[in-house]
Design goal:
The chain is mainly alpha-helical. Helices cover 71% and strands 0% of the residues. Residues 1-29 are annotated as: Disordered.
Length: 184
């Protein structure tokens, strides 16, 4: 058993530095100190950096954090009304889990089930609420495009009426000109 454990520990490429204090305890302490919930990205950074706040050498943690931060910026463009904490949580979960709810969540301690973390609201958010929110944002952008097209259509309609008037005026002038040529 210990040989298997040694191999497993040797194959890890991300190490947490939080000691025996659980992630949930760290989040609760942060919330008590700051009066707001700690985002998953903040928790990850806090538990995977040393005392000097640098990432451990020879790990992929820094690359993972960079990927999450890039995802935060991408989500910020798509969802400008979301809070920073919501953006960081969503980006973290999308980067970590690929937008799926895992059967066994990683990094929350022993015997933690997906229902303990995501619960009914989390499942709804992942399966429905987020999609509804995305659809609302898409619908808002579609409505903006439709309004822009209506304005453009009105402008083109006005220009079309002006062109019809000009063509009508030009046809009268042409008829008068042809009539004058026939008299000669």
């Amino acid at each position: 058993m210990s040989e298997c454990g040694k191999k497993a520990r040797a194959s890890q490429d991300q190490f947490h530095t939080s000691g025996s204090k659980s992630f949930a305890k760290r989040q609760a302490d942060y919330e008590d100190e700051h009066g707001k919930k700690m985002s998953l990205l903040e928790l990850w950074i806090k538990t995977h950096t040393g005392k000097d706040e640098s990432f451990l050498p020879n790990t992929v943690t820094e690359y993972f954090v960079d990927d999450v931060k890039a995802k935060v910026e991408e989500l910020r463009m798509m969802h400008p009304k979301m809070s920073e904490q919501e953006l960081e949580d969503e980006a973290f979960q999308q980067t970590m889990y690929g937008n799926e709810i895992p059967d066994r969540p990683v990094g929350y301690g022993l015997e933690v089930k997906k229902g303990d973390i995501f619960g009914v609201r989390g499942v709804l958010r992942k399966e429905g609420y987020g999609k509804v929110q995305k659809r609302n944002i898409v619908m808002d952008s579609v409505k903006e495009e439709v309004n822009a097209l209506h304005k453009k259509n009105d402008t083109l309609s006005q220009e079309n009426e002006k062109m019809k008037d000009r063509v009508g005026h030009n046809s009268l002038l042409l008829k008068a000109l042809v009539g004058n040529f026939l008299r000669l």
